[in-house]
Amino acid sequence: MASTSDIRNGLCIKFNNDIYKIVEFLHVKPGKGPAFVRTKLRSVTNGKVLDNTFSAGHKIDVVRVETQTFQFLYPEGNDFHFMNTETFEQITLDRNVLDAPDLLKEGTNVMIQINAETESPLAVDMPASVILEVTYAEPGVKGNTATNATKPATVETGASVNVPLFINEGDKIKIDTATGSYMERIKE
Fold first, then answer.
1. Which architecture does CATH list for 65-125?
2. Domains 65-125 and 129-186 share a fold
3. Which CATH class is domain 129-186?
4. Fewest Cβ atoms nearer than 10 Å: which of 27, 40, 143, 180?
5. 8 A C-beta contact, residue 111 and residue 99
């Protein structure tokens, strides 16, 4: 058993007869009254996000987790197939378990958290950023750059990302997987 002082991003806990991953948390110490921890939890079984407040010192049931490196192989409908890079064992995960399934490119390595007691996968930690090629982008209009204007672009995985006007088809761009937003253009 752990307490609210042990809460951190990525921690998996048992809560309401389900296993949740802590996505965000904030320790709050108001001027009056007891301290509390405001959290945003994502269910690892169905992907639903839940806001919950724990009072300070509340006991939480932590799930023992092992992290292993897997390589993304291919999508098949709502199923995503991964292979363990050490044992070559393959697993299939539902699209809802992934944080940013539209940004996964075949061959990308991800970290998968596995419940040590039941050997079942809990959560997928994507790399902080991915580099993808733009497959479609409207041409930019010259002289229309007085503000931070953006346009939608489609990348090789099919995801749509807002990019600056100077980005063209064939450019490689770096995308933040946490927010799904454009970071920079990659020069080759």
1. Beta Barrel (2.40)
2. yes
3. mainly beta
4. 143
5. no
For the entire predicted model, the pTM comes to 0.70
Q: What ranges do the domains of the chain cover?
A: 2-62, 65-125, 129-186
Question: Which tokens is 31 given?
Answer: 């001027």
Gap between the Cα atoms of 91 and 72, Å rounded: 10
What CATH number has the domain spanning 2-62? 2.30.30.30
pLDDT tens digits along 113-156: 888 888 888 778 888 899 999 999 888 766 656 567 788 999 99
| 70-76: long-range contacts, CB 8 A cutoff, minimum separation 24 | 70/109, 70/110, 70/111, 70/112, 71/107, 71/108, 71/109, 71/110, 72/104, 72/105, 72/106, 72/107, 72/108, 72/109, 72/110, 73/106, 74/106, 75/101, 75/104
